[in-house]
Write a structure and sequence with these properties.
The structure is a homodimer of 237-residue chains. The first copy, chain A, is of the alpha+beta class. Among the domains of chain A are: 59 residues, Arc Repressor Mutant, subunit A; 74 residues, Ferrous iron transport protein A (FeoA) (SH3 type barrels, Roll), CATH 2.30.30.90. Chain A is 40% helix and 16% strand. Chain A is built from eight helices and eight strands, in the order αααββαααββαβββαβ. Chain A has a six-stranded antiparallel β-sheet. In chain A, strand 6 and strand 7 form a beta hairpin. The longest helix of chain A has 25 residues. Chain A binds a DNA duplex (30 and 30 nucleotides) through helix 3.
DNA sequence: ACCACAACTTAGTAGCTACTAACTTCTATG
DNA sequence: CATAGAAGTTAGTAGCTACTAAGTTGTGGT
């Protein structure tokens, strides 16, 4: 069941005197999961990164040794202040690179995450800042996600997802998860993208699919998908 | 004397099912040295990559196992046909990336090699081809080096270097080694760049410095530097 | 022709990352 | 509140890359 060896092998850290890309990925994963006060669980990190839980235990010890995470044995890990800073810089890199690839090199919205995932570990800060400057210092990436500043400030506002909306509510799409190109293509096909307006027309019981009206057309969307599209509810109705 | 650990550690190969960045660097190094019929010597590879000769022996065995190089024990390594193809694609990536960074993101001519060195292992073929397209499929990088085609064709013409010119000869600068930003800055300061015209005004005996006239100004240049600037001699004097 | 020295290889070590298998801890359920 | 099963950890293995130290090979100079 486990896929074939996923890590072809080994290669040095990309930027002077720094973390390996692997370690960076863990920090990002922990950041992305650790938004609620709870520490990130070992199994959850493993699932997100597609590796075995045992590997996560090992890496957490290393990251802990480096002062980047604080591990609570048998409970999970939390980023330290330093670790959080590293994660935010990485996310900044990722989102700027995504933005650049989409707007300057015509990359497909749905596929750009994968490319950015690799480049974020190889690009120098100078390159990233030049890209940011070329784009006029954007504050959001193409999926609507806020770009942390180089001082590590981000909009961490918790948004509602479509799954949280009541029937009849209208909302503006703010952002969506970028981690799955299939998913993004699916959304794009419906016209669901940042800035679009959606209305919850109906909702089947027992966490059933949501019926959405987008640009006058009705679509049935599963809860899983609905939960990954974040919106701001409109005041009226 | 040996510098501190140069390889912080380890990270996976960047593009699907492929070589690690390390292995790729060896292939490039061997290609760059193996231009003359002789196999690339272990010590020479080690020196070029800045690693210990023993490490090279090990890697050559691995590359040999992968069918990318052919090793003659105690003599050196030569690329196989496959290995040469990989090296050329890498060089293509490198030079396209350099070109893109310089012309589209305002990178300094002298510093771009380092950035490209990292990105060439992380960028997908799609990204590289999009960059190439954005630049109108350039055939040379900013240092005048020819860019291999995606079919692996390159101009491998051997050029004379300034060190090969006779006193009084005039030549057009075609390209120069890109591996040393100090060196490139030095050249830039003299006005020596691809397309510039230089004249050998004098040459000190015993491999002494060459006196060069560039844009009407005289400069003294050591043989080492002169040997790394490639030119096409002008017909008449 | 020999030998000293340079060039190269082998052996052993280490760090990073990931794996599987086996064991420990935690917790929710009966 | 005892315990089964989930969650997590440890132990042992493996691949990659690099290192040092020590041994081997090859060759140029006398």
């Amino acid at each position: 069941m486990t896929a074939a060896r996923r890590t072809p092998p080994t290669a040095p850290a990309s930027r002077a005197g720094e973390l390996t890309g692997q370690a960076e990925d863990y920090l990002k994963a922990i950041y992305e999961m650790g938004q609620g006060g709870e520490p990130a669980a070992t199994n959850a990190i493993a699932a997100l990164l597609g590796i075995a839980p045992a590997s996560v235990s090992g890496m957490l010890q290393r990251l802990s040794r480096l002062g980047l995470v604080q591990v609570e044995r048998y409970r999970g890990a939390r980023l330290t202040h330093t670790g959080r800073g590293v994660a935010l810089q990485l996310i900044r890199r990722h989102r700027i690179i995504e933005s650049y690839l989409v707007t300057r090199l015509g990359f497909d919205w749905a596929m750009v995450d994968e490319e950015a995932e690799r480049l974020e570990h190889a690009a120098s800060t100078e390159l990233v800042e030049r890209m940011a400057a070329a784009l006029g210092h954007p504050t959001e990436d193409p999926h609507g996600a806020p770009i942390p500043t180089s001082d590590g400030l981000v909009d961490e506002r918790r948004l509602q997802s479509i799954a949280d909306l009541a029937v009849g509510q209208t909302a503006r799409v703010v952002r969506m998860s970028d981690r799955d190109s299939e998913f993004l293509r699916y959304l794009a096909a419906m016209g669901v993208r940042p800035g679009a307006t959606v209305k919850v027309a109906a909702r089947a019981p027992f966490d059933g699919p949501v019926t959405l009206t987008v640009r006058g057309k009705a679509h049935q969307v599963g809860v899983a998908a609905a939960g990954r599209v974040y919106v701001e509810a409109r005041a009226g109705k």
